[in-house]
Amino acid sequence: MTATDWLDDAACAGADAHMWFSEIPAERRQAAQVCSTCPVLDRCREYVLTMPKDTIGVWAGTTQSARKGLQDPDRTWTELMYVAEVHGTEHGYRRHKSRGETPCEDCQAATTRERQRRKDREARKRAGEAA
Question: Are the CB atoms for 32 and 80 separated by under 8 Å?
Fold first, then answer.
């Protein structure tokens, strides 16, 4: 028996590994959702703590950037998990900021898109008023 035999029981076992190492935020969120239902999530969390800090991919529902928060003893795993309803949204961006964190790339991109949408909407509104 090896130290990683528990991986055979993981929710991700046999799944397409691409999702856990994807550049696409929606795929990373989907991977994190799978992690959140995993029967060996606690074992995976223990394993993550032994990994090099620069390990890429979603592990135990966390991204590489989120795992930097593991250095803070006041942070909980739940706070670090990359869940769909938070990361990759403007709300997620504000949540990072309220904690004094640098927002993750997904939240930054979502906020940039939303700000541009607002600017475009205001420009259309002004153009309609000028007509």
Answer: no
Cα-based angle 59, 63, 69 (whole degrees, multiple of 5): 105
First to last CA, the chain: 75
In the numeric block, which tokens belong to residue 130?
Answer: 């000028």
Q: What contacts 87, CB < 8 A, 6 or more positions away?
A: 25, 29, 63, 104, 106, 107
- DSSP state, residue 62: B
Question: The pTM is what?
Answer: 0.57
Helix (H, G, I), strand (E, B) or coil at 59: strand
Q: Mind listing the pLDDT tens digit for each residue in 30-62?
A: 888 888 888 998 899 889 888 887 889 999 988
